[in-house]
Amino acid sequence: MANVVVIGTQWGDEGKGKIVDLLTERADCVVRFQGGNNAGHTLVVNGKKFVFHLIPSGILHSGKMCLIGNGVVLDPAILLQEIDRLNACGVPITSSNLMISRHAHVIMPYHRALDLARENRKGTVKIGTTGRGIGPCYEDKVCRTGIRIHDLFDAKALREKLERSLEEKNFMLQNFFAEKPLDPAAIQEEYLVYGEKLAPFAGDVSSYLHHVCGKARNILFEGAQGTHLDIDHGTYPYVTSSNTVAGNACCGTGIGPTKIDKVLGIVKAYTTRVGGGPFPTELLDETGERIRSVGGEFGATTGRPRRCGWLDMVVLKTSARLNGLAGLVITKLDVLTGIPKLKIAVAYQCGQERLHEVPPELNALEACEPICEEFPGWEEDLRQIRKFEDLPKNTQRYLRAVEEMSGIPLSIVSVGPGRDETILLRHPYDE
């Protein structure tokens, strides 16, 4: 038995969905523990592309239980669309393979309205939010005014909470943002229908996981976004609204920390980020554009083009410390094929100071220049290779450099988007 947390080590979009799908084969259940539908996991199975926003990507495996933990903020409309889409694709979604925590907070229409109004008001200093209402929903959770899944099953409780919330939210929307007010009766009617549809899936995720642990089965914890979007440890304020680090797997699902056996860090062979915020290794040239084009670096949720740059070892080593990584998974290695010279940032130069950790001050990070080591590239196609020793020598050299610089052993190398386009060095459920 082993319980493994899969975490992103950069600014999200590292390819976690494919790895979760790969590891689900050995897991008994997969649980999502934070974030909302601002995250998207994309994977390709038998040539077919699937995009997930809320349901763990392990749902494509029959006989596995997928769970959405209490740390997730959930948009019922998006979840139901995802369920319908999977059913239409021949992937049946029932209470036997999907459970939603009754404690998960619900994204309401006023959350989305406030999210968009605030972002629009920022003008040229936008954070880069997706406008999905994630942040405002987490705000209500912390302010103890949130609406949870179980509230959708109680018309009286839902109406009372809606009226209290909208008294404040409508005042803000009308008087500060000059937006139209929202009608609590209309929202109640809409969300009670959602409640009826979601009721069969609602359950006690914490108790279920406790039961699974007692039977010595494998659990896979699926993180969303990446470490440097963490609300506490990321490049604040250009971050998401939840804790994306591995420690939140416990808080976001109701499982004790002694039940976590290892943490697997997913790192793209280069670096990307979406929206605003500092990005020391960003490439604003033909190489950056080439990586974006070849790698299909456009948001799964928004379609926005991602900013692209060299692999950043300062970012990766900081993530290794914050998450207690036991193994690394390198993704999208094939995207680098054909680039004559590759670089890895090994430190930052900030004025007269050389830094090996990401500084917490935004202005300091924005002033940092990357100090890079250069590596020869390769021309060979990697997508048919299944053994490390069959990789081109320059590719092996690049991977070993990542392993040695980070101090974390390689576990898996992805050489293409397909499930089978993978080199497995150390399976986390074997160790």
Polypeptide structure, described:
The structure is a single chain. The chain is α/β, with parallel strands linked by helices. The chain has two domains: 3-96 and 204-424, Adenylosuccinate Synthetase, Chain A, domain 1 (3-Layer(aba) Sandwich); 105-200, Adenylosuccinate Synthetase, subunit A, domain 2 (Orthogonal Bundle), CATH 1.10.300.10. The protein is 31% helix and 20% strand. A hairpin with a 2-residue loop joins strand 16 and strand 17. The termini are close together.
Largest sheet: 10 strands, mixed
User: What fraction of residues sit in β-strands?
Assistant: 15-25%
**Fraction in helix:** 25-40%
CATH class of the largest domain equals Alpha Beta
Please state the CA-atom Rg, rounded to the nearest Å: 22 Å
Q: Tell me, briefly, the overall form.
A: globular
Distance between the termini: 10 Å
Per CATH, the superfamily of the largest domain is Adenylosuccinate Synthetase, subunit A, domain 1
Largest sheet strand order:
9-7-5-2-10-1-11-15-19-20
DSSP E strands, number: 20
Residue-averaged pLDDT: 93
CATH architecture label of the largest domain: 3-Layer(aba) Sandwich
Continuous helix count: 12
Would you kindly provide a brief summary of this structure?
The protein is built from twelve helices and 20 strands.
Summary keywords:
single chain, alpha/beta, Adenylosuccinate Synthetase, Chain A, domain 1, 2 domains, four-stranded mixed sheet, 20 strands
